[in-house]
Amino acid sequence: MRVSYFGRLREQLQTESEEFSLVTEIRTAGELRDWLVKNRHNGACLQDKSVRVIIGDDIATWEDKVNNTSEVAFIPPVSGG
Fold first, then answer.
1. pTM
2. Which strands form 17-19's sheet, in the order they lie side by side?
């Protein structure tokens, strides 16, 4: 699985992306987020309600399924002018 972080999340987690194999109890994007919060330095920034998840090329929900071949990205809110 490849997980990427954008914007302030990248800065807070001090990494652009990481690759790893899922532990068996992680089946959804929400469970992945919860695992990252517990197991990553500064992972609590992912709990912000404004953070969104992308799986593959699609905006996803926290209930959407993930697996070891998933490409997941976490993005903070963005604003424009």
1. 0.89
2. 17-19, 2-5, 71-75, 52-55, 58-60
Q: Which CATH superfamily is domain 2-75 in?
A: Beta-grasp domain (3.10.20.30)
Residue 41: helix, strand or coil by DSSP?
coil
Q: Count CB-CB contacts under 10 A for residue 79.
A: 4
Per-10-residue mean pLDDT of the chain, 81 residues long, equals: 94 92 89 91 88 96 96 84 52
C-alpha–C-alpha distance, residues 62 and 44, integer Å? 16
Domain boundaries, given as residue ranges, for the chain: 2-75
